[in-house]
Amino acid sequence: MRPSAKGWCPGAYAPMTSGDGLIVRLRPRLSRLSLHQALDICDLAERHGTGVIEVTSKANLQLRGIKRDQYKDILDSLLALGLLDETAEIESRRNIIIAPDWEQGCLSQAIAKEFYERLPELPELPAKFSFALDVGKTRRLAAISSDIRIEQSENGAVLVCADSAEKGLTVAPSNAITAAIKLAHWFANTGGNDRKRMQAHLQTQILPDEWQTQARTSHDAPIAPGRSDIGFVLGVPLGQTDSKHLRQLLLSHTPNGIRLTPWRGLIFEGIYNITTPHFIINHTDTLLTVQACPGAPSCKSATVETRNLARALAGQTNGVLHVSGCSKGCAHPKAADITLVGENGQFSLIKKGCSWDNPSRRGLSAEEILNSTDVL
């Protein structure tokens, strides 16, 4: 069983304390920043924190190491940039992941804007409960963790679906948000808040037939690094970058805007060719199959350094490699082909499992893992 992780995610109004200071998470609307906003975020990250910026699997942005006595200054600056909701309550409800290849005037944009306006209609939900908006020409978010999904069926109909259910409810586009809010109320009214996530709730609660009228498509096409129709897609190695590197790239290319992706990446709008050693620019890069949390000393729960080891091991294993500072597995809360878990300053090895599963080996040092031919 997975050990207890934080029951909430950091936000701007509710920062999380970590080993390197406060973590402040931003949820840009439509997962998009203007060039001006992105440059100012780089400045804020350096002025008030360590300069470390993270892109999360929810397509959010995190500033790490924010000094506690400068936290109010960060809030004031983010409000001035138009990156915060008016209240903490609304911000906490705006857990909406949108497929990043939306176009101006498209259905995704219209549904998202309506959802932002109707957030007060949602019931009280668990902090990690989220919505996926995936109604573009191609389904993108099937593998992204979410609880209620608005997506398209094979015949192009709009569906509102409970996560893990094989079918969804067909709705007119204008009724999509009303249906999603109704499903959220069903979840809350049937005890879902105790189970925290929709998938877990459906293991003990039967979903009403009205929510299972149309089969969902099995197609899924995540957006990989490289050239795309809307701009160049950059992978952020292990989800973390330095503000100096990001600022340099922004100033040298001046994109129309920057979109965040739930694959821990960035899209530079209107830019179609980028060469940089600090980001992933090719879909074959071996770092794309590696997951790692911040590790020690950035995280108080971790007993080992993770990122240097993860980078060194990239391409040396088959399938997904997960290096976790502790057994909570925050960076990759599901099974991986190889998982290395920090335990009392050393690593445990788990094959084809999660970070909280029983390991096949314990007490491994980073040096032993790197130098041995039979560990992995």
Protein topology:
Elements: E1 16-18, E2 21-26, E3 32-34, H1 35-48, E4 52-55, E5 61-66, H2 71-80, H3 88-93, E6 96-98, H4 107-117, E7 131-134, E8 148-152, E9 158-162, E10 167-171, H5 176-189, H6 192-195, H7 198-201, E11 214-215, E12 226-227, E13 231-235, E14 240-242, H8 243-253, E15 257-261, E16 265-269, E17 290-292, H9 307-313, E18 321-324, E19 336-343, E20 346-353, E21 361-364, H10 366-371
Parallel strand pairs: 6-7, 7-8, 17-18, 18-19
Antiparallel strand pairs: 1-2, 2-5, 3-15, 4-5, 4-14, 8-9, 9-10, 10-11, 12-13, 13-16, 15-16, 19-20, 20-21
Concise structural overview:
With 376 residues, this protein is of the alpha+beta class.
Describe the fold and architecture.
- The protein is α+β, with helices and mostly antiparallel strands and about 375 residues long.
- It has three domains: about 15-90 and about 225-270, Sulfite Reductase Hemoprotein, domain 2; about 100-215, no CATH class; about 285-370, 2-Layer Sandwich (Sulfite Reductase Hemoprotein, domain 1).
- The chain is built from ten helices and 21 strands.
- It has a six-stranded mixed sheet, with helices on one face. A five-stranded antiparallel sheet has the order 1-2-5-4-14. The chain has a five-stranded antiparallel sheet with strand order 3-15-16-13-12.
- A hairpin with a 3-residue loop joins strand 12 (about 225) and strand 13 (about 230-235).
- The protein starts with 15 loop residues before the first strand and ends in a 5-residue tail after the last helix.
